[in-house]
Amino acid sequence: MRLTIRTNLAARILMTCAENPDRVLKTAEVAELCNCSTNHAAHVVQRLQADGYVSTVRGRSGGFSLALAADKVSIGAVFRLFEADIPFAECFDEVTNTCPLSKTCRLKRYIERALDAFYHELDMVTLRDLVQGNCGLSALLTLRPEVPNSCSR
Ligand code: SF4
Fold first, then answer.
1. C-alpha 91 to ligand 1 mean position (Å)
2. 106 touches 152 (CB < 8 A)
3. 5-141: which CATH architecture?
4. Coiled-coil stretches, from where to where (predicted)?
5. Model-level pTM?
6. pLDDT tens digit string along 56-73?
7. What's the pLDDT score for residue 2?
8. Which portions of the chain are predicted below pLDDT 70?
């Protein structure tokens, strides 16, 4: 199993937002912190904005910031949002499926159960769980000159 790059990027970008709660972030600076192209980051930010996770400010000093409190951002929901349109196995998409086994295959049911368990675990995690007290992450993602001593947001 492998997450799509955009799902992983969404998590990185949201963590960057949460580590910089008082700033309007530029896509380019976030892309640098997240080690991706500005273009790729912009697409992910657009999707996050469309679903209400970040709000954007237009103009020269524009950018984006977290639109919700970090404890209201479910990592499971974010993963579902970005993974939803990609079928995990070929048979998960009835329109394009060509698997000859699909009428009798039992594996699909077990994969579905495994995915349910996977998302269930992530549903119990919030963005706040990822950043709160994580001084190492703060040191990597905080754009302020100094990381706060407490690291306890
Ligand atoms: S082998 Fe089973 S789980 Fe895999 S694509 Fe075919 S029907 Fe789906």
1. 6
2. no
3. Orthogonal Bundle (1.10)
4. none
5. 0.89
6. 999 888 999 999 999 999
7. 81
8. 145-153
